Amino acid sequence: MVLLKLRGREFFRGESQFVGVEPRTPQPTFPLHEHDFHELVIVASGNGWHVLNGEPHLLSCGEVIYLKPHDRHAFEEVHDLHLTNVIYRPNDALLHADRVRPYLQPGGEQVGERRYWQISADAFARLKPLLAALAEESRKSDAASNLMAQSLFVQLIVSLWRDRFATGAEHASPAARFADALSYLRQHCSQPIDLDELAHRFGYSPRNFRRVFREATATTPHGYLVKLRLGRAMRALCASDESVTDVALASGFNDSNHFAYSFRKLTGMSPSRYRQQARCREPRTLNLRSGRRLASPGS
Ligand code: RM4
Ligand code: NI
User: Fold this and answer.
1) Cα–Cα distance, 277 to 290 (Å, whole number)
2) Quick check: CB of 27 below 6 Å from ligand 1?
3) Using a 6 Å cutoff on CB, does residue 290 contact ligand 1?
């Protein structure tokens, strides 16, 4: 597979422009690529698979991704995925470079190399006008606009930083509860989950939860949970030598036929074939649909 290289000079006007906003409404499937700039991805709605340095992750509404230059990533199997890319090239002309730098990095001592974060719809609503102003200022090339773009960018990354570490305060709001429900699902997907009970726990009736869920993520809670489990299984197949049955069990599937069927439906191949392919690929990529055949039960 060819690795696409995106270069800053194709996206930025000149050396003086250091930040740009690239809305993707929607983000189509996009092949494996890397860039020589940083990219911050903020997901507004929908879902899709994001493969980052060989690891598949089911992306959905309210997630934020931090990408460094030379990270390799791709978007696959997208469903109404709407996002905004903020691309940037930190340089020494950046305002207060030393003080801002810690907020630019995806990781950091506190959080390690963590790349994905969930923010609430409230937090997203606060970012929206900021993103719009940043988009506008970064399109212009005069010195004042450049300075405006820089200061808006600083506001953006500091706000995101705050949202990442926000605790409790907003928990009464429905938007925050929904984000918490998504995070909960992501963290506990390998355990048995009763979705109706989950809805109640986060303050929804099951029916309302399904409605809100569909609006935000373009899928159902059940479909989402199955995909989260598949994501976990795909990662485990590549990272460990556990048997396929053990991987299925550890990923929350208690029926290995159901696992095999769902796995094939998503990837077009059996779990063991997937493991083989993922291991011998160079560079390691996970093209979810490669080798896809018509998937039907028993095929
Ligand atoms: C693509 C995709 C990529 C991004 C470029 C700028 O549509 O979102 O991740 O690097 O745009
Ligand atoms: Ni990219």
Assistant:
1) 10
2) yes
3) no
User: Which candidate, 151, 138, 124, places its Cα nearest to that of 62?
Assistant: 124
Q: Cα(89)–Cα(85) distance, rounded to whole angstroms?
A: 13
Among protein residues, the one whose CA lies closest to atom 3 of ligand 1: 30
For residues 124 and 62, the answer to whether their CB atoms sit within 8 Å is yes
In tens, the pLDDT along 182-228 reads 999 999 999 999 999 999 999 999 999 999 999 999 999 999 999 99
Q: Which of 254, 284, 238, 38 is nearest to 246 (CA)?
A: 254
Testing ligand 1's pocket by substitution, the residue of 75, 85, 87, 89 carrying the most ligand atoms inside 8 A of its CB is 85
- 23 CA distance to ligand 2 middle (Å): 12
CA of 38 to the centre of ligand 1 (A): 11
Q: Give the closest ligand to the alpha carbon of residue 27.
A: 1
Q: Which of 117, 187, 115 is nearest to 159 (CA)?
A: 117
Domains of the chain: 4-164 (2.60.120.280), 223-280 (1.10.10.60)
C-alpha to C-alpha distances, 258 to 68, 176, 228, nearest whole angstrom: 37, 33, 14
For residue 3, report the distance from its CA to the centre of ligand 2, in Å. 12
pTM of the predicted structure, to 2 decimals? 0.88
Angstrom distance (rounded) from CA 59 to CA 65: 9
